[in-house]
Structure formats: C-alpha cells, structure tokens
Amino acid sequence: MLCARGGWRALRRCASLPRAVRLRVREALGAREPAEAVRVQGWVRSVRSQKEVLFLHINDGSSLESLQVVADPSLEKRDLTFGSAVEVQGKLVKSPHKMQNMELQAETIHVVGPCDIWSFPLKMRERHPLEYVRQFPHLRCRNNTLGALLRIRSEATASIHSFFQDNGYVHIHTPIITSNDCEGAGELFQIETSREEEDSVEKSHFFNVPAFLTVSGQLHLEVMAGAFTHVFTFGPTFRAENSQSRRHLAEFYMVEAELSFTESLQDIMQVMEDLFKTVTGTVLSKCPRDVELFHKYIAPAQKGRLEQMLKHKFMIISYSEAVEILKQAPQTFTFKPEWGCDLQTEHEKYLVKHCGDVPVFVVNYPYDLKPFYMRDNEDGPQHTVAAVDLLVPGVGELCGGSLREERLPFLESRLERLGLTDAYQWYLDLRKFGSVPHGGFGMGFERYLQYILGVDNIKDVIPFPRFSHSCLL
Ligand code: 4AD
Ligand code: MG
C-alpha cells in the first residue's frame, strides 16, 4: 500500500508509464510507504536556502499542512520564490521530523509560474489579519486561514446535502429569479436588462412582470412539499439590506427545508437541531486541523465549546418569556424591550448569555411582526404565530422558520388585508388542492460558519463577499 488515499490507485494506473505519479500534497503527506518517482504540483509557501540543502514547502489546497521538499542547493533558481507555482519531481521518503510523516527529496524543480514577491500582497510566514486579506479577494485563498475556511465550507456543504438525502428529502433547485417577495420585507433586488432601450417600459418588462432575485426559496419549496412531503434547497439568496453589519451580506447562501404532514413546531426544531449537530460533527471529524486553526488563532474561546454543545439539547423559550427576561435584565438596552417589538441583536445576545451561552430556540412571535405565511396560533390577547428563530452565541439569529398557514380562510383573509390576494392566487391554490399542515425553516450558511468557527465578520466566511457599496471582482 503506497498511501492512504487516491494515490495508490493513481500509482497503479500509471505504473507502466515513465512519468512520475502525480500526488496531491494531502496524499503525499498521508502516504504509508516511501515511493520513487513522485510528482507534486502547487504553490511555494516557504523557501529556506542553507549551504548544504534547500528547503521548500509546497501547498496545493488539499490540506492545511504543506509538504516539505528537500533539495540540493544547485536546484535553486532565481524565480523559485514564495508564491511561485512549481512542479517538483523526486522520491517520497519518511521524514526525520516528528511533525511530518513524509517529505519529498527533489530531483527536479520546475517553476511553472513565477511570482513577483515585491508586489505580491501576501508575505512569507506572516499571519495576515483577516481584514488585511479581505482587500484581495482574488488572492486570499492562498492564505492558510481562508484555505482552511474554504475546505470547511466545502465539507459542510457536502454534509448538508448528505443529511437531507439520508433522511429522505428531495433536493429542489428553487429559482434565483422570481416574481414574489416571500418575506414581504421589501429587500429585493429588481432585475432589469442592461440593454439601452428607447422605451423604458419595455426594458423593465423582460418577464412581463417585475422580477427579482430571490430572498428565499420557501414558497417554491412549499409547492414541492405538496408532492414530495420532504424537500430542501441550498442556494444563493439575495437581500438589498443597506447594512454594513458583521452578520449581513447582500448575497448569502441559505439552506431551507420544508416538511409536510407536520403539526408541531417541535418537529421543525428537531430537524434544525439534528441538521446543526450532524453537520458540525462531520466538520469536526473531517477537518480537525482546519477547525483547530480557527480555534487556536481566531477564536480561542471557542475551543472545546462545540463538542460540549453537541452533547446537550438546545433550549426552548417563548417570545413572551424572552421579553420578560429582557425586561428584568440588570442592564439597559438601546432598544427598550417591549412585547410586540422585534428582538434586536443586543436582545438576542443577552438572551443567549442568559441561557448559558448555548443555542436557544425562541418560539411564538407576535402575529403582527411576522410574514403572511406563518400559522395563526389563534391565541390572545397577545396574538402570536407559530414561528421559531434559533439564536446562537456570538451571531444571534441563525435560523428562522415556522408552521405555514395551511387553512384557506385564514390565509385568504390575511392576504386580503395585505392587498396581496391577486399576486398569491397560486399560493392559495395550494390550500385548495390537498392542503396539509406543513412547516419549514431556513438557516444562513455563512452565519452557521461564523458560529462554529468563531469568525467575527461574515465577510470572512464566503469566498467573494457582496455587501452594500462593495462588489469586488
Ligand atoms: O429568517 P429568514 O428571513 O427566513 C426566511 O427567509 C424563511 N423564508 C426561511 C424558511 O422558512 N424557509 O432568513 C433565514 C436565515 C436567517 O436566520 C439568517 O441566518 C440568514 O437566513 N440571513 C442572512 N444571512 C446573511 N446575510 C443576510 N442579509 C441574511 N438575511 C438572513
Ligand atoms: Mg428571520
């Protein structure tokens, strides 16, 4: 056996070829046995030239660790610098260093693409602050922190899909272009063609109706939940929130699920909690070194907390209880807590702290605060809907969900009062043709990453952040 992963198969396939076997850095580092004639391609993370020996570290994004290359100083060239792209061929041997399993003894080093280190904004062996590398969205993926983040992001994405597929959900591609405003908050980006039309009316009617970038796939998922019972979607979502806050983006990714034949918020909360715990468990076990980097350098307080959190049930409080807790708080808030008012970030933070710095579900929000689709609890005098938000330490709201109003008369009268009856005829149809109790939720993927990794600013957990006054690249 040559190595732990695909390298063995790769070697077998190429055994009769004269060309050395190409290994990813991760495969080379994980190899169980030495090998002759190995080829590694990547970018130079460090160069150290000594009298007798030349040391390089090569990284190709397959792992946080770089592969050490040991070479004769005669192989050194002027353009073999930090940041350059190289192909190294040689022997894979056991490394004498405790920290590394294998190293590559170079026979040839080919500089595929040189790097002008004087103008390259990343510097060798420097731990650049996240704010600094944010200025270079085209280069920051070559930095350790962003590299780790993007591997974790990829693993978490795969795990989200597996979670739903394993539990019998059908994945739906909900549209990005839509004519509805699901949340009714008016945070829509309207779509227009870029063609210069003489007739501006024609220009704004490419689809015959005003069209927008989606703020949520929920309503389309509700359509599908009327045929498949369990559906999910996971895609880009757009909100024209004029906010520079550390938890808002104009383009973010949302995981959304919709469940039919569901009569209690408890069922929805169970899926949220299971999703959160399953994906986090997978990330912790599949990307331990990448996660460790965040918990060591970015958010030391987070170390060990996630493992603890995974062992306990999330807490549940009602909105009314939350307001009482806030009213009795020994501190004053900028926004005075009052029944009927939205929970502000400062309130969410306090509630999470008050509950012991663990994830907390807040259920049953005031009827007047929430969108038209939420199910009326028919209570009073404090009238509520069956809504649920999941609040988490450091981030605040991570998920938002609800039971949906499946009763035709209730939905008709609510839409009527909002003047939305015509626009939502198709939605009313769903309540006429085999309506069932159902509900679902959406989880902000970037906020999820922020929470598990302890990253303060949401712009650092997405490859190319878009927010008001900024759309680089
Ligand atoms: O609470 P929201 O608005 O819920 C919905 O859109 C529902 N229609 C989802 C559903 O039931 N299918 O958004 C869901 C989550 C929020 O809890 C938050 O984590 C995230 O999406 N989110 C944002 N993340 C980053 N930037 C923004 N501007 C966000 N707005 C919402
Ligand atoms: Mg919400």
From TrEMBL:
<dbReference type="GO" id="GO:0003676">
    <property type="term" value="F:nucleic acid binding"/>
</dbReference>
<dbReference type="GO" id="GO:0004816">
    <property type="term" value="F:asparagine-tRNA ligase activity"/>
</dbReference>
<protein>
    <recommendedName>
        <fullName>asparagine--tRNA ligase</fullName>
        <ecNumber>6.1.1.22</ecNumber>
    </recommendedName>
</protein>
<keyword id="KW-0030">Aminoacyl-tRNA synthetase</keyword>
<feature type="domain" description="Aminoacyl-transfer RNA synthetases class-II family profile">
    <location>
        <begin position="150"/>
        <end position="463"/>
    </location>
</feature>
<dbReference type="InterPro" id="IPR045864">
    <property type="entry name" value="aa-tRNA-synth_II/BPL/LPL"/>
</dbReference>
<dbReference type="GO" id="GO:0005739">
    <property type="term" value="C:mitochondrion"/>
</dbReference>
<dbReference type="InterPro" id="IPR006195">
    <property type="entry name" value="aa-tRNA-synth_II"/>
</dbReference>
<dbReference type="InterPro" id="IPR004522">
    <property type="entry name" value="Asn-tRNA-ligase"/>
</dbReference>
<keyword id="KW-0648">Protein biosynthesis</keyword>
<dbReference type="Pfam" id="PF01336">
    <property type="entry name" value="tRNA_anti-codon"/>
</dbReference>
<keyword id="KW-0547">Nucleotide-binding</keyword>
<keyword id="KW-0436">Ligase</keyword>
<dbReference type="Pfam" id="PF00152">
    <property type="entry name" value="tRNA-synt_2"/>
</dbReference>
<dbReference type="InterPro" id="IPR002312">
    <property type="entry name" value="Asp/Asn-tRNA-synth_IIb"/>
</dbReference>
<dbReference type="InterPro" id="IPR004364">
    <property type="entry name" value="Aa-tRNA-synt_II"/>
</dbReference>
<comment type="similarity">
    <text>Belongs to the class-II aminoacyl-tRNA synthetase family.</text>
</comment>
<dbReference type="InterPro" id="IPR004365">
    <property type="entry name" value="NA-bd_OB_tRNA"/>
</dbReference>
<dbReference type="GO" id="GO:0005524">
    <property type="term" value="F:ATP binding"/>
</dbReference>
<dbReference type="InterPro" id="IPR012340">
    <property type="entry name" value="NA-bd_OB-fold"/>
</dbReference>
<keyword id="KW-0067">ATP-binding</keyword>
<dbReference type="GO" id="GO:0006421">
    <property type="term" value="P:asparaginyl-tRNA aminoacylation"/>
</dbReference>
